């Protein structure tokens, strides 16, 4: 290349006081496509190391969908696929049909609510009453007691001298 360092930096022929035709000044910049492609491949390699493939859902799949506000996940079922990529129509627990992106959906392994309903828990409902023992010492209401007052956190309350009697 017959370009000066300044021309390489600015990617054009620099203007001078010498008379030059305008088509020389507005030359296309020299682009090294080979270097550009290697840069792109390197960036793709590092991006693909940590990228994950999204789940593809079918109609009838049992899913968990994230609520619009908050991070709570509620059960739902895929009703159909929308025209836009990664968008699905989902029926929630109240039988409302919602449109959700796959980033707000995750596969549900099993019908957990039915599973928990099927389990029979046998608990003994008899409770033995325990004698009520107070671990907190009784505090006298009058302010003349020699026992210092203590806050909930355990700090001792010392009244200022002017308020002491």
Describe the structure in your own words.
It is a single chain. The protein is α+β, with helices and mostly antiparallel strands. Among the domains are: 5-50, no CATH class; 62-115, SH3 type barrels (Roll), CATH 2.30.30. It has four helices and seven strands. The strands form two sheets. A five-stranded antiparallel β-sheet has the order 4-3-2-1-5, with no helix packed on it. The longest helix has 18 residues, at 33-50. It is flat.
| Estimated radius of gyration | 37 Å
Helix content: 10-25%
Q: Could you tell me the strand content as a percent range?
A: 15-25%
Which fold name fills CATH's third level, the topology of one domain? SH3 type barrels
Oligomerization state of this entry? single chain
**Overall pLDDT:** 79
Report the CATH C-level class of one domain: Mainly Beta
> Mind telling me which CATH architecture of one domain this is?
Roll
List the helices and strands and how they pair.
Blueprint: H1 5-10, H2 22-25, H3 33-50, E1 62-66, E2 73-81, E3 87-92, E4 97-101, E5 105-107, H4 112-118, E6 149-150, E7 156-157
Antiparallel strand pairs: 1-2, 1-5, 2-3, 3-4, 6-7
